[in-house]
Design a protein that fits this description.
Order of helices and strands: HHHH
Radius of gyration: 25 Å
Organism: Salinimonas iocasae
Number of domains: 1
Number of strands: 0
Largest sheet: none
Shape: elongated
Protein name: Macrodomain Ori protein
Family: Belongs to the MaoP family.
Distance between the termini: 78 Å
Length: 119
């Protein structure tokens, strides 16, 4: 898709709290998504928080998208949607260890003297 007509922020957008090594190295975004977020992120954040008024059609569409009135229709809005979901949503944590509730499955009556091999 073509580049949306949204103002480019003077400073690159970074979220060091959720993505300490940057968007590219997080493994969550493609290179093009990371570049879009870095280039337009501060503007999108200001539009979302309403500290910046939308100027063009694309910025007005983005504000409507943020409010849930329209679906995402360009790559920038889809990248922002992905960023918001990852940065503000719950992260799932998976472990290879069993939970403490499974400890009841083991035999508590086991005594090592019953199976003394050396004796």
């Amino acid at each position: 898709m073509n580049t949306p007509d949204i103002r480019i922020a003077p400073k690159p957008f970074m979220d060091r709290a959720k993505f300490p090594y940057g968007f590219r190295k997080s493994g969550d975004f493609s290179i093009s998504e990371a570049d879009l977020l870095t280039r337009y992120g501060n503007t999108l954040m200001a539009l979302e928080s309403e500290t910046l008024a939308p100027e063009g059609d694309d910025e007005s569409h983005f504000v409507a998208f943020i409010k849930g009135q329209v679906p995402a229709h360009n790559s920038l809005e889809k990248a922002w949607q992905k960023y918001v979901q990852l940065a503000r949503g719950k992260r799932h944590f998976y472990t290879l260890h069993s939970s403490a509730s499974n400890q009841a499955d083991y035999d508590d009556d086991y005594v090592s003297e019953e199976y003394d091999v050396a004796g």
